[in-house]
Every structure is written in C-alpha cells, then in structure tokens.
Design brief:
Oligomer: heterodimer
CATH class of the largest domain in chain A: Alpha Beta
Number of strands of chain A: 20
Mean pLDDT of chain A: 91
Largest sheet of chain B: 8 strands, antiparallel
Number of helices of chain B: 14
Largest sheet of chain A: 7 strands, antiparallel
Helix content of chain A: 25-40%
Radius of gyration of chain A: 22 Å
Strand content of chain A: 15-25%
Distance between the termini of chain B: 23 Å
CATH architecture of the largest domain in chain A: 2-Layer Sandwich
Shape of chain B: globular
CATH topology of the largest domain in chain A: Uridine Diphospho-n-acetylenolpyruvylglucosamine Reductase, domain 3
Number of helices of chain A: 17
Low-confidence stretches of chain B: 1-8
Chain lengths: 489, 413
C-alpha cells in the first residue's frame, strides 16, 4: 500500500547511475525519490513499488546499452509505455531499472499501398490513427485508453478495445517487431510481408507482457476505414434483458463492429460527466455499432433493432450525426475517467465468458457485490463476452481492499467455471498471477516457462510477471504463492 | 509424392490421452523420432528426415468436442477433416473461412501445422485469426493447452500462434478451438482477363482505395488462369493474365459491390470483365482453392512479398514458364515450375532469381513441394535470419532431444 523504500541492497551504485547518465543523457533519467513515485504503479493501484531509476532512451542503441548494463550488474529491468495497463504489468518488482519508452514515439513509415506502418513503441495509439486521417486507413485496435496508451504497451499486453469485436485484437494487426532481447541482442521478427517462414514469432511475442525483452519498433497492419456507420443505443429496464439481447445478436450470426454494455451505475457517472442525455433510470444500455458499406449497414442495423425490441428494449435510439456518434463513443471510452465521481479508488476486472453465459455472470457479479458489500458497476465489451466489473472502494481502508480482492477473485473464478478466462485484454501482470494455476495446469505453466526461459533465462527482464514461478534459470518448479500481491499488501 | 495412408501408420491414437501416454512411453523408452501426420496432404513440405522413426496418425482423433453454435466457436479434435468440419458448421450457417485444398483429406491439425490458406485470406484472415485455443502433446508426452474457448483471451503466452505453421516440430496438436464466421448470404466473383500481366498494376492500385471491400484479389498468369478455368469446368476466357476479385455479403450489397468494382476497373482498364454466374461461383472458388495442388510439376513454391511487388514478381515467374496464383492483396504467391525444369539445376535456375526478387523486398520464398533429393540444393526455407536463432531456441526448449519431425524445419535439427 505504501511505496517501499529503496532496498538497502540496491545494485544501482553511483557507478551504474553514472553509466546510465552516459547512455541516455542527464535529461533522460529520473532517480530522485519524489520523481520516482509516479512510476510506482500502473493503472492497477493496489500494489506499488518504486523503481530505483527510470531511464528514457530515444533509440534502440540506447536500449541495448541499458539492457547490457543491467545484465552486467544483475539488475532487474522492466519496460514501460504510458503505464495505463491495469494488471500491474509494469510494476517494478524488486526495483531496478525501469525503461520508459515514451520518448521513442516516431512514426517511421506509412505505406498505404502495402497496408502497413512502422512505429516506435512509445507512440500513443490514437496518434497513429490521427496521423492517418484522410488517407482512408486507420489502425484498428482501439483500447479505451487509446488517447494515452502506447502501441508498444499494446504489443506487450495484446490490447483489445471496443472495435476488436469485428476487427480483432492487437495480435491480429501486428506484422513484425524489433526486439531487444533480455541479453541485449537485437532481433527483427516478422515484417511487412505476411507468413514469414518458420514459427510465428510476432504471434508469440505479442502479449508477452515484457518478459521476452523490450520491443523497440513495431510494424502494424493498417485497415480500410469503414464507409458507413450506424450507431445505436438500446435502453433496457433489466440487465438480464440486455445481456440476453447480446447473446441473441451473436446467436443470429451478426458481428457488429462494437457491442458494449453500460449498467446503471456507470450511466450515472457518465451522464454527470458528459451530459449526453442517458436515461438515469435505465438498468442498462447497449451501445451497438455496425459498420461497413453504406448499402449494407441499414439492413444490419434494422436486424439489430428488431432483436433489441424482441428482447424487451424500452427504446432504441440511433445516433443522428457523426458528432453524436463521437460523443457516444467519448462517453464509453472515458467511462473509467468518470468513475472518480463515484469513489476514491476502483479496481477494474477483466474476465471473459462464452457470450451465451453473459446473463449468468452478470447475475453472479450482482450477488458478489451484495455478499462482499462492495459496490460494483459494469461497462464492458459485451460482444466478446469480455466483462469489466469495476469494484469501487477506498484504498485507505484495508478491510475494503480485502473485500475487493475477495470479490474479484470470486468473479474471475466463476469466469473459469463458465468456460472462460481471467483476462480478455488487460493481461496477467502481477494482479492475476495467483489465478494462473486455476486456469492452467502445472504442465501448461511449465511449457510456458520453458518458452520464456529460452528468451529470458536470467529472469532479469520483467521479473515475476505472468507466470507464478521464481523466474530463475529454468530449474524452478511452480510456486503457489502470489509474490506481487503479497509484496504490496 | 507418397502420402502416408492412415492404414499403414504405426500408431493411431483414438484419444489425446492415448497419444500422450504413447509419446511418454516413447520418450522414456526407445526415444524414436516421431512423425505426426494428419491427412497426409502436405507430407512433402519441409526437409525429409534422415533417420527412421514412427508415424503417428491423428485421423482417428476426429471427434467434435463441443459446438456451442450461438457462441460462434467450435472445439474439435485435430484429426477431423476440413470437409467434415465445414459440413458440420454449415448446419448452423457458419464456417471456418479459410480456403483449404483437398478438404476431404486435409485435417484441421494439418492445416494448423502448415498454416495453409487461400484466396479469401485477404478479407477473412488465416489460421492465426481463427484459432483461439488448443491442446497439444510434447515430445515427452505432456498434454498441455493454450488459450481457451472464448474469443478474447490474453492469459498466458499465446502458444497457439507458436504452433501454427510449426510443421509438427514442437508438439503434436490434439484438439483445437476455433472462432467461426457466419456463411454470407452471397458470394460473387469478377473474372477480368488482361492482355498483359502488367495491366493488373493500375487496377490493384485503384483497388487499394476501392469503395468495395473485396475478400479476395487473385492475379493468375496465363498458365495459372488456364489451370483454374479447366479445374472450374467453366469455360472462362483466358488471356495473358486474369485478375479475380471476390466479394461476399448480403444479396444487395454483393450486387452493389460487384457493379462498383466493375466500374472502378473500367476506369483504369478498357477490356471486358465477367461477373461469374451465381450458380458457378462455388466451382470457381473451389478451383482457386485447389490451385496449390492442381498440377504435378516438379516444384511448387510459395512466395511472400510486399503486395506492391506482386505484379513484377508474377511477370518474372511467368517468363520462366511458371503457373502462378498470386493473392495480390496479401502478397502471397503460389507458383508451379514448368515440367521442363527436369533437373535440380534447371529448377534452381528458376528458384534462385525469383527468390532473390522476393527477398529483395523483405519477403521470402519457400519450396512447398519437390523431390526430396532436391531440397538441400533448392534450400526449402531460404535464407536464415537472426530470427531463425529465436526459432531454434524454441525448438531446443520444447523438444531438446529433437524427437518431433527431426530436420523438417531447420534441415539439421
């Protein structure tokens, strides 16, 4: 709960610090206590630890030098983008060197004929799409934090977003990358040409949560802009009707571009923040968007409106102008920001269930909210079955924190029971490390550890992330502890 | 050319547990090399083994484990044939939207191991977009899984991606979960004969900003077009080259797309284009799908290019007498060398320059099929890159004793 003090055995000696300054320049490093506090956590605020030093390289060569120095002195290091991740993926366990990539933010190449762009990892997601405005192309993965999160961070966590329902998540849009491996080697994997011979390394490396090294350049697929949109708002008096509607839409073989649910608690916060005109007495709203050819979207929209009406929608509104559509999406994407109005702290969960099980999991969430006396509001990617219950609490109250963790675990375990997963897009990080052996067998985890140990044998790069293992030389067996969580609580 | 017929396989497990036990016994006992085979349609792909071992056929691992159609996912065992899978999915008006040749033989596991794909990959993706979970058995017989049965999942490393295209060298895949797509109401194809291959360039350029969204854009050279036309049993007009544009969707929007794309092409190219009759579209899709196996030439290759280099590449390959099908929107090209390439030297005289052209734009050329004796000379996978070392690391980590399909991918391990 409190920033730990720099460990007495910190390996950042004055010599190491001087060498880091030499590599990145005096303006590319932070090491004063008060400056480091910002880097003690990401969007997962329950666990915190400050790095010993944060460096801001501006080139691959600098990253290589930093990584080599860390190896030489056996100092743990962890890459970080904008720090918007929600599972503690860039929590600097054990302190050490944090490699912040936010100054490597150039767009290196845009090739529309061949439908790709090459970018540096610190580029903010939406800046690429903004840069492409007017070309008829965009970068499809659109996490709600896209105004702040970086494409390197998206690569590390395999980020999703509302429109990934139709267009796929980050991995479906990454063609290649340049990696600085944990031992300092620089390797190009994949590239703008599809189907590189041999194993699909970009496919494996996306979602590695920083445990396979530092990504220093990314080649991404660009997607044609849809010619037309129809954006609808289905208003429901019962959350069960809303979830049943989602199930019926998918069951009818319709794949909307986006299909999002917001419940009453969120509607209230969003309405107070943006004054869109959401009905405050509705139990849930569905934000549904279809996109594609002008000639096709009306038919699809009509089918969806019919399904909404058949499953008890009180009303279905349609966005009448591009401006109204953008406002609707702003409300959805900034819903998390509006939560500050409801509570001093919140913890967003990220479970997935088969889409037909949405009614069941929503009922369970309500039950858990009552059982643990924790208010839970919901805003999520309904079409993917990707739930985001948001648990509201006050982090200064240790008992509330405990109840939040208990309710979170219960919800995620229910997701597993229903045939789902404990994370759809936020990642394992440290937050969910104790759930990995509920989702996977010892053998599954051992195989994953073998893969990781091939690339990160010393475990210095992003230690104690993703897998519940000690992270040392391939000899370890699986621990059943929760190091990250214990460290922080 | 030899398939490995299921009946002659050394071992045919009926459950993945049986497969797991057998591999564990092999690992602790004789430690023979293991060659996993599905339908045997791609056994020519990769380097041959120099050591004898045992074949494991997955064809009896063919059960449907779970098909919750309303979730649009399906979980099946790896030995199910593509034809049987598609028939099952069609009962719910769903499909795996990947064009696979020899679907009556090819198994899903084999398709995964070889990362096979076809014309509609442009609009509908490849196996890496469709596979959301799997189970596999490693060389020691350990049954492990990755991913799950939900469409969005980032728990743990994505070993599904790692195994797609791995040619059975890391593990034997036993069970697969797929994300499905609805079968569209309608599918339509425009067949555009060209008097020169180069005429395709302005059309392809135009299509990058088309108002339509084609699911397939194939460029066929004369020999390629003749093959496809004959195979489809539709007497389609063939010229120096043919451009094929496929669209799919609802009835109304498919008609609109077909007309619009025809108009767009007419603005940059004066010749006639033919909208294939509705009743004939399936035949043509099928002929396009079978192209990679449509000929008994001495060598078949697959090149991977920047899409913008495709036309020049097809021109060059056609000059050597190859039959070519280029997925021009994706830069993926299948080529059959002419029968005149009777010796490894004459084959190499074609492969070397076309591979150079592919590698010059950052792409690659893989020899999909040729005489085993030619493979070392032709170099199946082309140049090694620093990324090859990372692939070898995976092989060493997951199959340290090199029991699974030894040599097949790297030629030496």
């Amino acid at each position: 709960m409190h920033p730990s003090t720099t460990p007495a055995d910190s390996k950042i000696t004055p010599q190491v610090l001087a060498r880091l300054v030499e590599i990145v320049g005096v303006g590319g490093i932070l090491s004063a206590r008060e400056e480091l506090v910002v880097y003690e956590c990401d969007g997962y605020t329950i666990e915190k630890n400050t790095p010993d030093v944060v460096v801001f390289p501006i080139s691959t060569a600098q990253v290589v030098e930093i990584v080599k120095l860390c190896n030489q002195h056996q100092i743990p290091f962890v890459p970080r983008g904008a720090g918007t991740s929600l599972a503690g993926g860039c929590l600097p366990i054990g302190g050490g060197v944090m490699i912040a990539l936010t100054r490597m933010k150039k767009i290196l190449e845009v090739n529309l004929r061949d439908r790709y762009a090459v970018v540096e990892p610190g580029l903010v997601n939406v800046h690429l799409t903004n840069h492409l405005k007017g070309t008829g192309y965009h970068y499809a993965p659109d996490p709600s934090s896209q105004g702040a999160c970086t494409i390197g961070g998206n690569f590390a966590t395999n980020s999703g977003g509302p429109h990934t329902l139709k267009y796929g998540v980050t991995v479906n849009h990454v063609l290649g990358a340049e990696m600085v491996l944990p031992d300092g080697r620089v390797v190009e994997i994949g590239g703008p040409c599809e189907d590189s011979p041999g194993y699909d390394l970009p496919g494996l490396f996306v979602g590695n949560e920083g445990t396979f090294g530092v990504c220093t350049r990314i080649t991404v697929r660009l997607t044609r802009d849809p010619a037309a949109y129809r954006t609808m708002l289905g208003i429901f008096n019962s959350i069960q009707d809303a979830t049943q509607t989602i199930s019926n839409i998918i069951g009818a073989g319709i794949v909307p571009a986006a299909l999002e649910l917001m419940d009453q608690g969120i509607i209230e916060a969003v309405e107070a923040a943006f004054h869109f005109g959401f009905p405050l007495d509705a139990a849930a709203v569905l934000l549904i968007e279809v996109d594609g050819l002008e000639v096709a979207v009306d038919d699809e929209a009509r089918q969806i409106i019919d399904i909404c009406n058949q499953t008890g929608a009180r009303e279905v509104r349609t966005a009448n102008s591009p401006k109204e559509r953008l406002l609707l999406w702003k409300c959805r994407k900034q819903a998390f920001g509006a939560i500050g109005r409801l509570s001093p702290s919140y913890c967003t969960q990220d479970g997935v269930v088969p889409r037909t099980k949405l009614p069941e999991i929503l009922a369970f969430i309500i039950a858990m909210s009552e059982k643990h006396a924790i208010r839970i509001v919901n805003v999520f990617h309904a079409g993917d079955g990707n739930i985001h219950p948001i648990l509201l609490f006050d982090e200064r109250d240790a008992d509330q924190v405990r109840r939040v963790l208990a309710a979170s675990d219960a919800i995620l375990e229910k997701c597993i029971e229903l045939g789902g997963s404990v994370t759809g897009e936020h990642g394992i990080g440290v937050e969910k490390i104790n759930l990995m052996n509920k989702l996977f067998s010892e053998i599954d985890l051992a195989v994953m550890a073998q893969v990781r140990d091939g690339y990160n044998p010393s475990g210095l790069c992003s230690p104690r992330k993703m897998l519940p293992t000690a992270g040392a030389c391939g000899m370890e067996h699986i621990e059943r502890s929760t190091p990250g969580r214990r460290a922080a609580l | 050319m030899s398939l490995a017929p299921a009946a002659e396989s050394d071992f045919q497990p009926s459950t993945q547990e049986e497969l797991s036990r057998w591999l564990a016994d092999n690992s602790t006992g004789p430690a023979r090399p293991v060659f996993a085979v599905g339908g045997g349609t791609s056994t020519q792909f990769g380097y041959p083994s120099t050591v004898a071992g045992q074949t494991v056929s997955t064809t009896r691992l063919d059960r449907v484990i779970d098909y919750p159609a309303r979730d649009m996912t399906v979980t099946v065992e790896a030995g199910i044939t593509i034809e049987r899978l598609q028939q099952l999915l069609a009962t719910e008006r769903q499909r795996l939207p990947i064009d696979i040749p020899e679907a009556d033989w090819a198994t899903l596991g084999g398709v995964l191991a070889t990362n096979a794909s076809g014309s509609r990959r442009l609009g509908l993706g490849t196996m890496r977009d469709a596979v959301i979970g799997l189970s596999a058995v490693d060389a020691e017989g350990r049954l492990f899984k990755s991913g799950g049965r939900v469409v969005k999942n980032v728990a743990g490393y994505d070993l599904c991606k790692m195994l797609i295209g791995s040619l059975g060298t890391l593990a034997v895949v036993s069970q697969i979960t797929l994300k499905l797509r609805p079968i569209p109401e309608r599918s339509a194809i425009l067949w555009v004969p060209l008097s020169a291959i180069g005429e395709a360039e302005p059309i392809l350029e135009r299509l990058t900003s088309s108002a339509t969204r084609p699911v397939a854009i194939d460029l066929l050279d004369r020999r390629g077009a003749e093959l496809v036309s004959a195979k489809s049993r539709l007497s389609l007009p063939v010229n120096a080259a043919v451009l094929v544009v496929g669209v799919e969707g609802g009835v109304r929007d498919t008609d609109w797309q077909l007309r619009t794309v025809q108009d767009e092409i007419r603005r940059v190219q004066s010749g006639e284009s033919h909208a294939v009759e509705a009743g004939e579209v399936d035949n043509l899709w099928s002929a396009l799908t079978e192209f990679p196996v449509a000929i008994e030439g001495p060598v078949t290759f697959k090149a991977s290019l920047l899409p913008s280099r495709t036309v020049a590449f097809v021109e060059q390959s056609a000059r050597f007498g190859c039959a070519i099908q280029a997925h021009a929107g994706s830069g993926i090209v299948t080529g059959h060398l002419p029968g005149s390439a009777e010796t490894v030297e004459s084959a190499q005289a074609i492969i070397r320059p076309v591979r150079q052209a592919a590698e010059a734009c950052g792409g690659s050329l893989v020899v999909m099929r040729c005489d085993d004796d030619w493979k070392a000379t032709l170099n199946v996978f082309g140049r090694s890159t620093p990324a090859t070392d990372l692939m070898r690391t995976l092989k060493t980590q997951l199959d340290p004793r090199g029991l699974l399909n030894p040599r097949r991918l790297f030629g030496d391990m």
